Amino acid sequence: MSSLWLYCITLLFVTRSSSLNILFVSDGAAGHVTTVYELAKTMKNHNVTFFTQQLAKSYVNFETSATFHVIYSNDSTEAAINEKKLEQELIGVYVNYSFIDSIFYSTPSALPYVIQFLNKTIDILMKQRFDVIVINGLLMWGPILCDAIKTPCVIQSPVSIPNILNLNLPNYFSLLTPTDMTKATSRLFNAIFTFRLAFSSFFKSLPLFYKVFHALPRVPGPFYHSFTLKNLLLLKSKNLHLISMPSTFYVSTIEDPYTKYLGAFIDETEVNLTDDDLTHWLQSKKMNSVIFAAFGSTSLIPHDRMLSLIIGIATFLIEVPDSSILLALRNVNYDTYESVLKTIDNDQIRYIFDSVERVKVERGFVPQKWILQQHSVKIFLSHCGMGSIMEAFYYEKTVLCMPFNMDQFSNAVTVVYRGVGLSLFVPNLSPLESLITPYDYRHYAFTSRDVQEKLSKLWLIAIYQQAVKQLSVEMKHAGGVKKAVELIEFFVEMNGTFDHFIPFEATLPFYQRYLLDLFVIFVLLPGMIILFVLVKYCQRQSKQKIE
Q: Which of 70, 97, 383, 530 could be 102's S-S partner, Cβ–Cβ 3.0 to 4.6 Å?
């Protein structure tokens, strides 16, 4: 018996000693924290600490993860309320300004929360040692802190955005596609647009940079020099980047050893849901008979778009008798829906939306991942946030995009270009207007006919389903969260460096890579010598003739 106990204790010690202490860091926004949480859940053999804002509790149920040690940036009872108020304030900014301008207008309001989050991150790192830190890509200070304490850093991002300064690639905000970049006019516009955006952003960011720079902490210890201007400008940290969307989603780019495409970060563990009216309704439907409509946590649907949406959906449901729709409307969107529905006099439309068998309207939170898993769902009508469309593609659902702000417009254009869905948004600015107000598409419009026709195309034309199935296969083949766990463990074992995986050619200086040194020595210098000799010879011949 004693030998058995000794064996068990030894086994327990070995298991614990081989596990890693991992810190996961993410802000509390829905589209950011959910993906990092999916990855953290898979780290079952390691000691996980999850640091976030209390806002995250609106979107993630941490109580189901008993093995997690969750830390919040602010433990006060008012923190969740204040963070929610800030979220609503930022929504208002993004509704009223272009995406580029809204970044500058929203930063002063968000800055105190950002600095508080940063200070708490430093406090955690001062008190505890971690083997690796996994951080959301939006939190740009992560690599700086990891470099200061010499800890491997893993950055999770939904997509690898092409280098905005590479003029051979379509600018992310220009909404140009790779096909457009084969035309001379588009290449010219891309270059002008990039310079216009760069200069405009530079001058707007100068006063903001001064304010942010002076708000950054100077804490005694290993982080004291982390946020000096010299360190911010010269630091070249090497971090492992884990990307969820295929690198070809926007435009195919060359990946380095520190950038790994792993597919969607989705934990496929079966979700245990309450047996309620929603689950009964959805599970009673036939295969590929339901449209699921959800618009994220921050989108506000204007009255005119809601009207077009309701009439277009109703027209489609009337034309396709076997179809149904699950409509998830949060907060003020539900109030807008009710007020618009009351103004519609068409009895047929009102009858459709009063039919609980055809239309199911959910006012609060819905389990989006579980819904997209269901075989009864065929089309996902979405705001086209990156997290939402990743889940849709992973579960082989075609997407009809209705974007509102931020990256959603670019995502919508790419969804159409890749053939995995359609969009109610069509770029409505001329090249000149796009240069004057870059990436400002807030006021686009669509008709009820657009809604009905595009739903019908996705419903009837098989090529969209084939394209999204191919994308799903690509994402699942990449490995997802399971592969991410293995890669993080491997990265730590390699002491946080993949330098020896870098191709030799990429390690060469610019002049060696393009043989400029050999060109100078064996072509340019001999050429100059020969030219010099010829000139001297010609001068001598000319002089002799004169004499």
A: 97
Task: State which amino acid sits at residue 475.
Answer: M
pLDDT at 355: 85
Which are the contacts of 234, defined by CB distance < 8 A and separation ≥ 6? none
Say whether pLDDT at 270 is over 60: no
pLDDT tens string 379-398: 999 999 888 888 899 899 99
Token pair recorded at residue 469: 């199935």
Helix residue ranges, H only, 149-293: 184-215, 229-234, 277-283
**pLDDT, mean of residues 429-433:** 79
Q: What is the pLDDT of residue 247?
A: 66
Contact 106, 94 (CB under 8 A): yes
State how far the Cα of 470 lies from the Cα of 418, in Å rounded to an integer.
Answer: 11
- HSE-up (13 A, CA, CB side) for residue 244: 27
Of 212, 31, 228, 210, the closest CA to residue 115 belongs to 212
The SS3 call for residue 283 is helix
Mean pLDDT in residue range 423-427? 90
Confidence (pLDDT) at 66 = 63
Contact (CB, 8 A) for 262 and 484 = yes
Pairwise CA distance, residues 411 & 401, whole Å: 9
Contact 439, 402 (CB under 8 A): no
pLDDT, tens digit, 9 for 90 and up, residues 519-547: 888 888 988 999 888 888 888 877 776 76
Contacts 24+ apart (CB under 8 A), 480-483: 480/262, 480/263, 480/264, 480/265, 480/266, 481/38, 481/39, 481/41, 481/42, 481/262, 481/265, 481/266, 481/267, 482/42, 483/262, 483/263
Pairing of strands 324-328, 398-401: unpaired
Dump pLDDT digits (tens) for 288-324. Answer: 889 999 988 778 888 889 999 999 999 999 998 998 9
Per the CB < 8 A criterion, the answer to whether 124 and 103 are in contact is no
Instruction: Say which amino acid occupies 173.
Output: F
DSSP 64-97: G-TT-EEEES--STTHHHHHHHHHHHHHHHHHHS
Give the span between the Cα atoms of 393 and 387, in whole angstroms.
10
From CA 541, how far away is CA 297, in angstroms rounded? 85
Strand pairing of 398-401 and 377-382?
parallel
Q: CB under 8 Å to 74, separation ≥6 — which residues?
A: 53, 54, 82, 83, 116, 120
pTM for this prediction? 0.76
Phi and psi torsions of 136, nearest 5°? -65, 140
pLDDT of residue 50: 92
> What is the b/e burial string over 259-283, where b = at least 16 CB atoms within 10 angstroms of the residue's CB?
bbbbbbbbeeeeeeeeeeebeebbe
The overall average pLDDT reported for the chain is: 83
Q: What residues have CB less than 8 Å from 100, skipping those under 6 apart?
A: 173, 197, 200, 201, 438, 439, 440
